[in-house]
Amino acid sequence: MTITELLTPAATDSPISISSAAAALTITEATACRYLRAGKLTHLDDGVSAASVEAYAERRAVNISRTRAVPGWHRRPTGDLRPLPRTAGPVEEAAAAWAEAARLEALARKLKAKARPVLEEAGPGTYGPFEVRFTEGRLDPDTKLIAALYFAVFGEDVPRKRSAPSPKVSPAA
Predict the structure, then answer these.
(1) What is the DSSP letter of 158?
(2) Closest to 53 in 3D by CA, of 78, 73, 74, 25
(3) Phi and psi for 15 in degrees, rounded to 5?
(4) Residue 126 lies in domain
(5) What digits encode the pLDDT tens for the residues 76-124?
(6) Is 150 a domain residue?
(7) CA–CA gap between residue 20 and residue 18 (Å, rounded)
(8) 170 within a domain of the structure (yes/no)
(9) Looking at the DSSP assignment, which residues form a beta bridge with residue 49?
């Protein structure tokens, strides 16, 4: 097969709407638009090439099956507090593990918040099998003061950049 044949859409290809492409790939319409701009999907007339959506779905399925980062997401490293649900594939398993980790993290935050005042009142020392001590705490920059000084000197707001996006996993409706 030549490069021209690979880059030319098939004669039987038909355009589909961005919303249909997004539904077929189970992504949002905004993500489908990003895929179009990035060249992962192909424009065709006033829509998206159905063949490019199908080809991308096949490539994604192969990549997901090949790039399973950690086999056995369903197994817990320590203790069985709550069994993780068995799912269809590695992405679903990863999402289930992420959601369970988020639940445990929230529980740990609540327990630590309840224990903190008791430990602060008790002070440092040895209590049964536990040694309690306190660190000096970290120094955080005074961002309001920095922004005010920057504005006073340069006459504009402090330049900012976004941090890396973090996955938010919740049960599908």
Answers:
(1) P
(2) 25
(3) -80, 145
(4) 90-154
(5) 455 545 555 565 678 888 888 888 899 999 999 999 999 888 888 888 8
(6) yes
(7) 5
(8) no
(9) 15
